[in-house]
Please model this.
Amino acid sequence: MNKFWSPAIQSLVPYTPGEQPRIDGLTKLNTNENPYPPSPAVEHAIKHFSVERLRLYPDPDAGRLKDALASEYKLNREQIFVGNGSDEVLALAFMAFFRQTRPLLMPEISYSFYDVYANLFEIDYKKIPLDESFRVQLSDYSHENGGIIFANPNAPTGIAIELADIEALLKRNTESLVLVDEAYVDFGAESATSLVNKYPNVLVVQTFSKSRSLAGLRIGYAFGHPELIEALERVKNSFNSYPLDMFAIEAGCASLSDRAYLNKTCQQIIATRERSAEALEALNFVVCPSSTNFLFAHHRTLTGAELMTYLRERKILVRHFNKPEIANYLRITVGTDEEMERLIAALKAHPNIAS
Ligand code: PMP
Model:
């Protein structure tokens, strides 16, 4: 402990987003990255970028990207916020909306950054358990609250929530903000974007990191009522008035121009996911129904920790969580068919995995 640390910092546990080892020859199925490159339109935009432009500051409003998002998602520019990855957008939202006298509600098992931000901003929170089949039951979110946050589909379970259930929650909960984190929505869940024009209490957060394969550029965004967006802009501007660098703006616009590529690669990942889920089930795994680019599964007899170590020794990285409720589970990112075949072959070679 350093004497210069403030008390709030001393109690913080930093989140590390999985492991990012720099070793050649790894099959990396641990951090939910997209196995395919971004759209060729992105490569074209970056290759033709004039380096001379870099002496200037980027557009502080990222206007071109907001306009491209507005046209793609049928919204107005005033309903859109952009930031450095959805992690940053989430952090700003926690700061802008959730520092209330009543607790923030969140699922017991969800994206671990929610705890990090709540602790960082000293926000009181209450965790709502998942149901017995690991689903987020929004009817359980009836406690008095200063906001509600959940991921749809949830992470790390991968299970989607019905849009009708989200709409019912918005109707019941008009006095506080509901943040829907849709990091994985393009892999098969229904987006709440269609509710943004109808409900002033919903904020939808999405990212270019997963379905658009641009994790390296850090582009996230939020859709909501213009007054919610204004709050985010105020907080953001107090830290750094330039939300995105020029490359991110260029690449983001290029990615949005190629909807066909997004659809094609998402369909490919979904097909690989479904085949991989069946192969895992045949190897005695129980697999949660996934609407994401990852599978959440446990083996009927072997522990998550031993399987993770076994796979790691074979240079295959998957994610294992130390939380007791899910300690037996592995979260496996859906890679290419070839990567998934390597995973399945390694599991088949395990002496105690019966098929
Ligand atoms: N939300 C969820 C549920 C996630 O799993 C992630 C990725 N770890 C994020 C948000 C953040 O993604 P990014 O900052 O890359 O946009």
